[in-house]
Specification:
Four copies of one chain form a homotetramer. Chain A is elongated, with a radius of gyration of 19 Å. In chain A, helix 5 runs antiparallel to helix 11. The first copy, chain A, has two domains: about 60 residues, Orthogonal Bundle (Arc Repressor Mutant, subunit A); about 140 residues, GntR ligand-binding domain-like (Four Helix Bundle (Hemerythrin (Met), subunit A)). Helices cover about 70% and strands about 5% of the residues of chain A. In chain A, strands 1-2 form a two-stranded antiparallel ribbon. By secondary structure, the first copy, chain A, is mainly α. Chains in contact: A-B, A-C, A-D, B-C, B-D, C-D. Chains A, B, C, D: InterPro entries: GntR_C (IPR011711), TF_FadR/GntR_C (IPR008920), Tscrpt_reg_HTH_GntR (IPR000524), WH-like_DNA-bd_sf (IPR036388), WH_DNA-bd_sf (IPR036390).
């Protein structure tokens, strides 16, 4: 499989930029839960962008559960991400982090399913070692994003398909960035949240160990989806 | 989302190499449908590789439907890819092509689902234009892999998530390579097969146009899975 | 597994009734493609029902792709089911038929996946026999719903899980009814549509024969989803 | 949708009977983790059944993760269900309970997805009320299967598709039976396990409240899959 090369990074989408600016106002509290957003037309004027750009930003904010459209009435702020989010991540990164989750759910779900079918006992041992490492680091409340990435990488490796590993590595910076954000929130969270994060990883490992592809796919997708929710919702399992 | 960079291509997995060599024997007819493969132990000796390498190659051959294991009896050749396959692709590429399909099914399925939810009317127009292009090229029985890639790229673009586009582009060479193989087989095939390939693309477009995310996901996954089967099975819908 | 008993049929949901009445107007042409529907408030008054009932009916019409909501503007007829639909089915049945498809997609998809993993060679033979029967009946342009049901029942049987068979049988009347409608439309359709219907069934059989659970799930879900679309859309693959 | 009637219960499959008898030996400890099972041929003679019946029972035991086949070597006991299982359920019911889970995963996953798209605020309120009820009962360590069923029924109701409700009700006895078993195991388990069971239900509710169909589908499938695992594996999250 020759030819796995990446195009130079294209300029950020206008929709993502507008998304970031509205998100910043939600995180800062300038827009509060329940507040109505300006109309499409007003947003076009305020930010000097075209209608499709406004629509794309609105759709992404809805997709992330941050705003909700009520038919015939307008669009309202639905939830506010955790306080320290912008401090940790920078508003401009949040759009990237959330788009990255959209990709990881199907990609890593499939990798986990293949790993359940194909892993050698050596590969399973490496997943277990990464899981134990992650447990130690998280319990110590130390920075866990490297250990977290190592676990996900070991699962991809066990899929016996190099392309899953290559893509995960190409997303390395974006993923560790999002993990740092999610785990930071966890670190500031309760003991219960920490136990949940470890529990989710254990479930993935167990399904792969049992050779149950459907359960592995499900456990991985569930885990990544939950991580995504932890970023956008400050009320999630405090 | 900074940091989307790819590691230098790592050396080919030993399992993939062994896979390629056994596949070559199946395509050449040295191993025929129904023939029993040498045992794990014999394969270790013949190819001077370790047991895990043999197991990985066997698992991938099974995953691709080329061989089948009968418990307590051994492993047998189940189907033979189309005659001209090696001529078109080179045995060493086939493993890469088939692994690439494993990745594309979940990845492009998700992109199609997001496109159904988010596409602007301009983006929908671009998908339609790419579909019409593909129809013209295929009907003319000309080389269609560029037009085929353009269709899939337009769907990824309509997901409003740059990362799907970036990954598709990073796989550009591998995907066009596999499309060339699949479409070549189609070109040599019946009118019926050509109609099916176009039909599959139309279904994806229609589901996205209707805004039906589940149907779009399903139609895309079905299409890519069928393309994969066309490569490994010469009896498929001749 | 004792205790599989059905409650007496509950009275039809008001939402389904309203759905049926609006559908009837779309099929009869009283409401044409592109026409705007009355507002929620007007529909409440016209049909003397509460707002939640109107919302439920609207949501179901949208889910079936028959109407589309344009934000801030209203709800419009998007497509018109095939002409003879009401004649064949009776407007009051259409809601039931389309709700039945919603159930069959996940249910029979899973049954097909389990069949790919578990079928004995005898069970596979019965699926093949049912497929051949269906081919004969459809080619003869005779009434094919019994043969169609027999194919789906044979797949459920091969899942080695009696509960899939029991539920399919409990839905027997509803399923054969919807098959009669879909196949009638097919019978009046082109040769190409007939070939497609047979092709979809062949794909399911082949995936089960190959033992490929994911492909079997996909092929079954795709087939049932297409059948659903054939009922609501007169433009589908004529 | 007339005609939703169930055939009289058919006699238990021979494969399920054999499954029950082997399971009984695993639960009783007559067969221990790591023990090798008799060969197919020996099982045919021991139980006076045909080869396909033995194969079906073996496949179901593998599907449930109770035994594992090692190629060229034989089939071994992989895990032992919790001690009190037979006492609570009776060996003859376990096969039925586990087959019921296979059905519920796709069925209730889809119902949850539809509920996320369609629920009225009244229906959402009923799901919340059922969740609160379940919390009270479980915290009090009282029998929770009726409250558990009520939660799942409220989700099905919110799908706005009566057929999901009808099928759930037709499975009422089988589902409450399996819930009683799973919750009994939970009741005897740690505080942590109780928190997890409630947490899983909260996730389903939250995804439906947010209108996120994919997350609701995922959370429901994950929950039912975990419940299934709790029944077969005594080591699961003690």
């Amino acid at each position: 499989m020759a030819g796995l090369t990446l195009q130079p990074k294209r300029k950020e989408r206008l929709g993502d930029q507008l998304y970031g600016q509205i998100l910043e106002q939600i995180v800062s509290g300038a827009l509060k839960e329940g507040d109505k957003l300006p109309s499409e037309k007003e947003l076009c004027l305020m930010f000097e962008v075209s209608r499709p750009v406004v629509r794309e930003a609105m759709m992404l904010l809805q997709a992330d559960g941050l705003v909700v459209a009520r038919q015939g009435s307008g669009t309202y702020v639905q939830r506010r991400p955790p306080q320290g989010l912008i401090a940790i991540a920078g508003a401009s990164d949040i759009a990237g982090i959330l788009r990255c989750y959209e990709l990881r759910v199907p990609l890593e779900g499939e990798a986990a399913a293949l790993a359940a079918k194909r892993r050698s006992s050596e590969q399973l041992g490496q997943i277990k070692a990464a899981l134990d490492d992650l447990g130690r680091v998280v319990e110590a409340r130390a920075s866990a994003s490297a250990a977290d990435f190592a676990f996900h990488r070991a699962v991809a490796e066990a899929s016996c398909n190099e392309m899953f590993v290559s893509i995960l590595e190409s997303l390395h910076a974006a993923i560790e960035n999002s993990m740092a954000v999610a785990l930071n929130i966890t670190r500031e969270g309760s003991d219960q949240r920490i136990r949940r994060v470890l529990d989710e990883h254990s479930r993935i490992y167990e399904a792969i160990a049992m050779g149950d592809a459907d359960a592995a796919n499900l456990a991985m997708r569930y885990h990544i989806n939950r991580a995504r929710q932890r970023i956008t919702d400050q009320h999630q399992d405090v």
